C-alpha cells in the first residue's frame, strides 16, 4: 500500500478547519436527493450559460462580542448575566464599486440574564449612551447566554437578508448571507446562504469525489436536503462550488464552499441563483496571504466584519464604561462583573 | 440607499450648533493624528478639499463656556483608503470587490490662538477655510500697523508683511535665496521695492526715500521707467488686489560705467540696450586718492589674509597726502612731481614709489615679496578698473559721479564690468552712501539697497572691505534707516551675521541639498521639500509676525525688463522737453 499523500487544509489552525465533518459518517435523519436538477452527478459550468453573470451582489454578515460576563445577586442563588453587542450589515459589490450599505447597519446591545428579574441597562458616558436591552433566558448557563447572543445576531442577519432580497425588484441583484439560511418560512427570492465550514457532507463519499475535480467557478448539480419526518417542509436546495484553485500543497477540498437556497424556491430560479453565485464567487475568494480563513472568508465580507467590529465600539472603553456604571448603580442592584472574557479563556 | 453617509458622521460630532454650516472638515483625534495646541489634522469633508497654503479657522469650546479661535495654515495633505491593509487591496477596491473609502486628512500648523490659551482644538470641531477678517487674523494682518504687499497666495488672496520689521522700527532687511534664473530673486526684490515706493506703506516718506539698485547681471533693470506693454490683465488684477498701481517706477536715475577711451568717451555710458537717459560714471584720480578707494581694489578675501593689506594701508596714506598736496581744482594729483591724469600713470607712479628694486620708499617697512605681490595685483586690476578712475575727462566731473540722492531709485548697471571692477564699484558706492548716512545721524529718509550675489560681497569666510560695509549695514543700518534687500543663490555661503539680521527671509527655487541646510531652519519640513519645486514667480516668505512660512506669488513687473517690452517714450512729451 502506498503511503498516503498528505496535503494541507488552508485555514489557519486557530480558526479550526473548514472541514469539521467525518466524511464516512452520513448526517442523521436527512433525506438527500441528488437528482433534482439532473440525473447525472457531474460538474455544471455556469460560465457557459448566457446571463449567468449577475450585476450586483449583496453580502450580509454580522459580528457579535461579549462585553462582559456577570453574576446577578438577588439574595438567592447567583444568576449568570451577559453584556453583549452585535452588529449586522451588508456590503454591495457592483458597477465596479464595493461599498457598505450604510442604512442596513444594525447595532444592538443586550443584557442577557439566566432567569430572575432584569431591567435594561443604560450606560452613559459623555455624549454617548449605551443601551443594553434586558432579556431573560431562564436556566441558561454562561455558554448558553453566549449562544443566545449568537442566535440574536443570526436572527438579525436573516431578517436583513430577507428584507434585502424582498426589496430587490429586478433580477440584477443577488443576496448572499453568511451561514445556513435560518428562516425556512421565507420564500427567499434571489437569496442564497453560503457555508464556510463543512459540518455535514450530505453527499456520499463517491459523490464527494466530484468536489475535488471541480474547476474554479464550477458547481455540483443542485441536491435537496430535507427532513424525512416533516412532509410539509420542502427543505433546502444545496450545491457545492469551487471558488479557488489552491497550490498543490493544499488539499483540493480546501477551495470548496457549500451554498443553499430555500427548498420552496422554484427549481428554475434556484438554478439561476446557483449559476450566478457560482460564477461570481471566485472573484470574491480571499487569498491565503490576506486572510487566515482563505479562500472561504470572502474579501468583501472580511472587510464588512472589520467594519462592523469597529462600529461595535472600543472594547476596553465599553468595559470601563460598564464598570463605572455598575459602580454607581450597585447601591441598589447587585450585579458583579466577572473578569474579562479573554482573561477567562487565557 | 445612501452609502457611507457623511451626514450621520457629521451630526455625531455637531456641537452646540455654533459652528460653520458648511465646514471643510473636522479636527481629527486619532492616536496617530492627535490634535495639539500648535498643530493638528483635519479630516476633510469629501464634498470639499483643502490644499496646501489654505488658511483655516476652528472655534473650540473650553469647559468654562469660553471658546478659543485657532487659526492655521495647511502644510500637508494626505489621502488614504480606509479599510485596506495590503498594497494590493487598491486593485481589489478598483475591481469593486473590497469596500474602501478614500479619507483625506490635512495637517495644519497653527499660526494664532485667540485668546492665548494653548489647548488642542477639540477633535470633532468643524474646520472652515478662513476668509476675509478671519484670514487677516490668522496671518496677523490685522495686527500690522502698516502693511507692505508681499504678493498673493496661489488662490489669489493678498499676502502682506509688517512694515515695522522692514523700516527699522522693530527690524529691517530682506534676504532672498534661490537658484539663478528660476528663483526670480531680482524680480522679486524689485517688486518689493515697487510695493514700498508705489504703495501706501511709506506715506509721505515715499517721496524722500532713496534706493540703490546694483544691477550685476543682464540689463533687466535698465527699463524700470518704461511701461511693460506685455502686462496681462491677470497681473493688473493682482497689482490692484494688493492696493498697488501698475505703472513703471516714477523716479529713476540710471548709471553705467563710462566707456573706455580718451577724453570724449568718459561721458558716454557703457551699456548695450539703452544709452538714452543713462549717465556714465567715473571717479577722478583725486577722489580715488583722497577718499582712500585703493583698498576696494583689494577686495578679495585672501587679500586681507595676506600681508598685502598692510602695503595697501601704507600706499593709501601716501596717496591721501599726495591729494592734499595737489591743486584742489583739478581732477589729477601730483606724485613725485609728476601730474597723474590716468590710472595707468597712477599705477606706474605707485610702482616707482613702492617697489624697493626701483628705490621706492612708500612701503619700506614691508617685505619685498609682499610689495611685489601688491604691485602684481594692482597691475592686474588696472585694465579692468582704469577707465573708471581718471583725471583727464573733459566734462563736468561732478555730473558723472554716482549721485544716489537725485532720484527715488538709482540703478547702477555693472553687468559689463569685470568681477574686480564690480567689487570696486559696489564697495566704493556702499561705503560712501553709508558714511553719508552715518554723518547725517538720522534714520530718515529710508534708503534701500538692492544687491544680488551677496555670497561674493559678504562671503561666509574671510573679511574684505566690502564685507565690512555690508556687515555695518546689516547690524547698524536698522537705526540709520538703511535697509538691505540682499540676494544670493545659497545663504549657506553668505556671512551668517548678514543673513541673521534680516527680518524677512525669502526663498525661491532651491537646490534640494541646499534646502536641507541649517540656514533655512525657518522653513518647515514640507516647505523645504516645496522649495525645490518652486516655479519662477513663486517664493516662500518667512517674517517675524507669522510663525509659518507662506508661499507667495508676485505679478510680472509693471515696468519693462527688455526693449521689446518697453513702450516708447511719449513723442509729444519728448518734443515738449525739446522746446523748453
What does this structure look like?
The complex is a heterodimer of chains A (346) and B (580). In chain A, 42% of the residues are buried. Chain A has 346 residues and is an alpha+beta fold. The mean pLDDT of chain A is 85. In chain A, strands 1, 2, 3, 4, 5, 6, 7, 8, 9, 10, 11, 12 and 13 form a 13-stranded mixed β-sheet that branches. The longest helix of chain A is centred in the middle third of the chain and has 26 residues, at 142-167. Chain A is built from six helices and 13 strands. Chain B has 580 residues and is of the alpha/beta class. Chain B is elongated and about 100 Å long. Chain B has three domains: 3-133, no CATH class; 147-255 and 268-273 and 400-579, P-loop containing nucleotide triphosphate hydrolases (Rossmann fold, 3-Layer(aba) Sandwich); 283-390, no CATH class. The termini of chain B are far apart. In chain B, a hairpin with a 5-residue loop joins β3 and β4. The chains are: A alpha+beta (346), B alpha/beta (580). Chain A binds chain B through residues 91-104, 283-284, 289-290, 299-300, 303-304, 306-307, and chain B through 1-5, 8, 83, 85-86, 89, 92-101.
Give the arrangement of secondary structure elements.
The complex is a heterodimer of chains A (346) and B (580).
Chain A: E1 31-33, E2 56-72, E3 79-94, E4 97-100, E5 106-113, E6 121-125, E7 128-136, H1 142-167, E8 173-178, E9 191-195, H2 205-213, E10 223-226, E11 236-242, E12 256-262, H3 267-284, H4 299-312, H5 315-329, E13 335-337, H6 341-345
Parallel strand pairs in A: 2-8, 5-7, 8-9
Antiparallel strand pairs in A: 1-10, 2-3, 2-13, 3-4, 3-5, 6-7, 9-12, 10-11, 11-12
Chain B: H1 6-13, E1 25-27, E2 39-44, E3 55-61, E4 67-82, H2 89-94, E5 101-114, E6 126-129, H3 132-138, E7 147-152, E8 158-162, E9 172-177, H4 185-198, E10 210-215, H5 233-241, E11 252-257, E12 278-281, E13 283-284, H6 285-290, H7 301-305, H8 308-325, E14 333-335, E15 338-340, H9 343-354, H10 368-385, E16 389-390, E17 409-413, H11 419-440, E18 447-451, H12 454-457, H13 465-480, E19 482-488, H14 496-500, E20 502-507, H15 512-515, H16 525-531, E21 538-542, E22 550-553, H17 571-579
Helix pairs in contact in B: 8-10, 9-10, 11-13
Amino acid at each position: 500500500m502506498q503511503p498516503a499523500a498528505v496535503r494541507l487544509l488552508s485555514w489557519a489552525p486557530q480558526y479550526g478547519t473548514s472541514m469539521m465533518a467525518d466524511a464516512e459518517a452520513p448526517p442523521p435523519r436527512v433525506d438527500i436527493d441528488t437528482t433534482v436538477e439532473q440525473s447525472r452527478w457531474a460538474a455544471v459550468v455556469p460560465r457557459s450559460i448566457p446571463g449567468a453573470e449577475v450585476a450586483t451582489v449583496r453580502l450580509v454578515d454580522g459580528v457579535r462580542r461579549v462585553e462582559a460576563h456577570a453574576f446577578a445577586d438577588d439574595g438567592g442563588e447567583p444568576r449568570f448575566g451577559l453584556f453583549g453587542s452585535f452588529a449586522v450589515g451588508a456590503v454591495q459589490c457592483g458597477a465596479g464599486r464595493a461599498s457598505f450599505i450604510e442604512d442596513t447597519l444594525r447595532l444592538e446591545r443586550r443584557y442577557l440574564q439566566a432567569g430572575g428579574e432584569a431591567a435594561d441597562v443604560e450606560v452613559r458616558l459623555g455624549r454617548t449612551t449605551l443601551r443594553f436591552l434586558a432579556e431573560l433566558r431562564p436556566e441558561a448557563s454562561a455558554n448558553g447566554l453566549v449562544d443566545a447572543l449568537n442566535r440574536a445576531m443570526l436572527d438579525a442577519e436573516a431578517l436583513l437578508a430577507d428584507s434585502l432580497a424582498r426589496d430587490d425588484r429586478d433580477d440584477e441583484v443577488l443576496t448572499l448571507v453568511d451561514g445556513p439560511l435560518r428562516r425556512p418560512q421565507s420564500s427567499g427570492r434571489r437569496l442564497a446562504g453560503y457555508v464556510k465550514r463543512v459540518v455535514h457532507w450530505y453527499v456520499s463519499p463517491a459523490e464527494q469525489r466530484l468536489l475535488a475535480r471541480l474547476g474554479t467557478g464550477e458547481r455540483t448539480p443542485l441536491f435537496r436536503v430535507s427532513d424525512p419526518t416533516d412532509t410539509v417542509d420542502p427543505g433546502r436546495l444545496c450545491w457545492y462550488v469551487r471558488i479557488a484553485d489552491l497550490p498543490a500543497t493544499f488539499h483540493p477540498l480546501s477551495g470548496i464552499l457549500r451554498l443553499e437556497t430555500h427548498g420552496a424556491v422554484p427549481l428554475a430560479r434556484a438554478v439561476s441563483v446557483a449559476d450566478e453565485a457560482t460564477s461570481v464567487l471566485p472573484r470574491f475568494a480571499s487569498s491565503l496571504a490576506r486572510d487566515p480563513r482563505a479562500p472561504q472568508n470572502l474579501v468583501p465580507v472580511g472587510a464588512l466584519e472589520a467594519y462592523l467590529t469597529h462600529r461595535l465600539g472600543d472594547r476596553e472603553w465599553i468595559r470601563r464604561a460598564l464598570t463605572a456604571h455598575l459602580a454607581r448603580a450597585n447601591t441598589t442592584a447587585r450585579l458583579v462583573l466577572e473578569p474579562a472574557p479573554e482573561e477567562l479563556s487565557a | 440607499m445612501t452609502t457611507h453617509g457623511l451626514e450621520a458622521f457629521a451630526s455625531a460630532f455637531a456641537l452646540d450648533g455654533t459652528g460653520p454650516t458648511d465646514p471643510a472638515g473636522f479636527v481629527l483625534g486619532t492616536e496617530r493624528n492627535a490634535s495639539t495646541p500648535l498643530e493638528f489634522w483635519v479630516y476633510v469633508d469629501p464634498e470639499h478639499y483643502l490644499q496646501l497654503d489654505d488658511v483655516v479657522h476652528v472655534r473650540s469650546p473650553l469647559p468654562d463656556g469660553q471658546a478659543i479661535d485657532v487659526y492655521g495654515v495647511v502644510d500637508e495633505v494626505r489621502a488614504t483608503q480606509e479599510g485596506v491593509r495590503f498594497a494590493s487591496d487598491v486593485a481589489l477596491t478598483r475591481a469593486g470587490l473590497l469596500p474602501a473609502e478614500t479619507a483625506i486628512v490635512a495637517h495644519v500648523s497653527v499660526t494664532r490662538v485667540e485668546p492665548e490659551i494653548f489647548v488642542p482644538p477639540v477633535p470633532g470641531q468643524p474646520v472652515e477655510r478662513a476668509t476675509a477678517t478671519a484670514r487677516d487674523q490668522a496671518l496677523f494682518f490685522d495686527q500690522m500697523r502698516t502693511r507692505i504687499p508681499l504678493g498673493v497666495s496661489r488662490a489669489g488672496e493678498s499676502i502682506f508683511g509688517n512694515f515695522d520689521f522692514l523700516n527699522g522700527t522693530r527690524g529691517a532687511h530682506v534676504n532672498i535665496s534661490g537658484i539663478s534664473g528660476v528663483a526670480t530673486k531680482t524680480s522679486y526684490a524689485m517688486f518689493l521695492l515697487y510695493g514700498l515706493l508705489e504703495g501706501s506703506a511709506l506715506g509721505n516718506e515715499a517721496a524722500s526715500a532713496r534706493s540703490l539698485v546694483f544691477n550685476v547681471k543682464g540689463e533687466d533693470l535698465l527699463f524700470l521707467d518704461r511701461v511693460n506693454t506685455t502686462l496681462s490683465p491677470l497681473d493688473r488684477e493682482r497689482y490692484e488686489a494688493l492696493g498697488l498701481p501698475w505703472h513703471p517706477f516714477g523716479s529713476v536715475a540710471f548709471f553705467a560705467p563710462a566707456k573706455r577711451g580718451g577724453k570724449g568717451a568718459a561721458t558716454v555710458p557703457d551699456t548695450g540696450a539703452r544709452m538714452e537717459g543713462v549717465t556714465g560714471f567715473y571717479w577722478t584720480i583725486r577722489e580715488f586718492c583722497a577718499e582712500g578707494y585703493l583698498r576696494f581694489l583689494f577686495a578679495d578675501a585672501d587679500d586681507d589674509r595676506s600681508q598685502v593689506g598692510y602695503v595697501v594701508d601704507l600706499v593709501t596714506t601716501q596717496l591721501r597726502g599726495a591729494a592734499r598736496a595737489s591743486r584742489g581744482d583739478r581732477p589729477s594729483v601730483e606724485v613725485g612731481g609728476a601730474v597723474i591724469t590716468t590710472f595707468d600713470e597712477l599705477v606706474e607712479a605707485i610702482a616707482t614709489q613702492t617697489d624697493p628694486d626701483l628705490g621706492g620708499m612708500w612701503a619700506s617697512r614691508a617685505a619685498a615679496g609682499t610689495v611685489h605681490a601688491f604691485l602684481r595685483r594692482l597691475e592686474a586690476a588696472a585694465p579692468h578698473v582704469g577707465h573708471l578712475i581718471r583725471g583727464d575727462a573733459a566734462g563736468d566731473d561732478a555730473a558723472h559721479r554716482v549721485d544716489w540722492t537725485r532720484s527715488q531709485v538709482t540703478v547702477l548697471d555693472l553687468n559689463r564690468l569685470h568681477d574686480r571692477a564690480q567689487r570696486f564699484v559696489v564697495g566704493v558706492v556702499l561705503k560712501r552712501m553709508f558714511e553719508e548716512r552715518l554723518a547725517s545721524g538720522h534714520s530718515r529718509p529710508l534708503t534701500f539697497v538692492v544687491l544680488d550675489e551677496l555670497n561674493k560681497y559678504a562671503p561666509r569666510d574671510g573679511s574684505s572691505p566690502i564685507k565690512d560695509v555690508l556687515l555695518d549695514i546689516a547690524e547698524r543700518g536698522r537705526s540709520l534707516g538703511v535697509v538691505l534687500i540682499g540676494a544670493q543663490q545659497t545663504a549657506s555661503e553668505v556671512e551668517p551675521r548678514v543673513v541673521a539680521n534680516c527680518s524677512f527671509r525669502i526663498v525661491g527655487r532651491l537646490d534640494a541639498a541646499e534646502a536641507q541646510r541649517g540656514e533655512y531652519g525657518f522653513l518647515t519640513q514640507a516647505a523645504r521639500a516645496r522649495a525645490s519645486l518652486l516655479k519662477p514667480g513663486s517664493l516662500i516668505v518667512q517674517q517675524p509676525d507669522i510663525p509659518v512660512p507662506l508661499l507667495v506669488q508676485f505679478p510680472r513687473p509693471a515696468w519693462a525688463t527688455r526693449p521689446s517690452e518697453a513702450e516708447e517714450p511719449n513723442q509729444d512729451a519728448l518734443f515738449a522737453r525739446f522746446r523748453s
